[in-house]
Amino acid sequence: MESKKTVVLGASTNPTRYAFIAANMLKDYHHEVVPVGIKKGEIAGQAILNLKEKPEIDDIDTITLYLGPQNQPEWYPYILSLKPKRIIFNPGTENRELMDMARKQGIEVEIGCTLVMLRSGQY
């Protein structure tokens, strides 16, 4: 299985959060994890990059989204500037506006759960 460089957007150091679980599971499945969030800390052996600094990240396969729709608009330009091959909208993050913007730029859009996709071999 090929490793897919994945940005976990909305990364959290809270072990009860799905973003935390997903980052660790991605690592367990041998994908390169790039956690980006607003809280400092470490997740899946990686320092969380500060979303407010809009870090530049190259060669992204997937952004897995853990930001609620109400928190997404201010980050649209940044998310799209990363030029991922696809964006996974995890449950509760679905947002028609961002999905349409991504599709217009040729970015694949998936509505699904990263955890389920990994476990079922659909990642």
Automatic annotation (TrEMBL):
Gene3D superfamilies: NAD(P)-binding Rossmann-like Domain
Every CoA-binding domain range: 4-118
Organism domain of life: Bacteria
Coiled-coil region list: none
Protein name (record): CoA-binding protein
Phylogenetic placement of the source organism: Bacteria, Pseudomonadati, Bacteroidota, Cytophagia, Cytophagales
